[in-house]
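REVIEWER CHECKLIST
Item 1: Sequence provided? yes
Item 2: Single chain? yes
Item 3: Sequence as submitted:
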Amino acid sequence: IFAHLCIFPSLTLIFHNIITCHACSSYKELGPLVPTLLNGLYRIYTLTGDRSFRFVILELCLTIPSRLSALLPHLPLLVKIIIPALRSNQGDLINLGLRTMEFWVENLHPSDYLFPILAQDSTQLCELMMALTSHLQPA
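Item 4: Structure as written out by the authors:
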């Protein structure tokens, strides 16, 4: 079991290195693996009760090195992932969730992609708005 747990910090390091290096060939190599990675990681997330391990899984899901166009079909799942990231008590994970949300809003036309996903599930919309507003502070 210990050997399997060691892979997740390694994956985190690999993902961060690919993102910071902007290695285009690595993006192309990982592209076909995105559905398997996201679905597999989310399945692990739902099956584990260990909070710290769940945070690692959320971080991995939000840092999968891929072009936004490759992530679009998986946006409904990513919305499910970003909500617990924003609700967490981990500063880095919250910042990652906020940066990811900002990236989506800046690079996607929200009425074409985000709103239709959120409109399908009012509970999810409410959870996302509550998670976002929990980070608002008066100036």
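Item 5: Key structural point noted by reviewer: The chain has nine helices and no strands.
Item 6: Recommendation: ____
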